[in-house]
């Protein structure tokens, strides 16, 4: 049986449940369309910094922030398009804006569809008319995310889109990685480093991008939690980012359609023609053993 319930907490919270598998999502449309909780048989898959979450002025660290129309940061938070320069902060604005609920599905699976539309405020930093649709589909231990970006402008629309899931972990030394790449770049550096399957978790922060991917799936096995996370993504995604901070019980494995600063460099930048829609699919599979 599949159900969707709505509770009024700090924010209106949609609770999606697959009762047979005891899998559940909590989604906050008005707080950036974010999933804050994903649990299977009572065990949390996602991490959430509850103190930051309570403060609406702070970005959320946890759940699955949505990245649009850029992934990562821009030099001096600026980019130029069609001869005009605009200011856009890290990861764009989608994760900070209220989304609307467009559809609820409880047949064969449970699904919540959300929509974000351009407005006068977004056009001050991103001069395009658009509609972004997100579908969160839950079935068993699998979360499928379908993203659709429609260009409602009269000119081609450039963007990057990404997904920023935070996974709960208690001992990072117990993590094993299967990432389809043999090299990465650290944030802020052009230098290429070989990847041997391990990270140095004694560092204060790890923020690296895998830009040359040989496959369409990656996985992290947390032996301490007996949990394997598998991330599957389609051809639209060119980059995987791994990020974590020392002393915090999370790691992030993020699929991005383009690398940092793609809006200025054009590298793997997605461009959608007027009236067209670009669709992407991401799938997360959580296996507790």
Automatic annotation (TrEMBL):
Coiled coil: none annotated. Gene3D superfamilies: 2.70.98.10. GO terms for biological process: carbohydrate metabolic process. GO terms for molecular function: carbohydrate binding; isomerase activity. It comes from the Bacteria. CDD domains: Aldose_epim_Slr1438 (cd09025). This is Aldose epimerase. It comes from Plectonema cf. radiosum LEGE 06105. The lineage of its organism: Bacteria, Bacillati, Cyanobacteriota, Cyanophyceae, Oscillatoriophycideae.
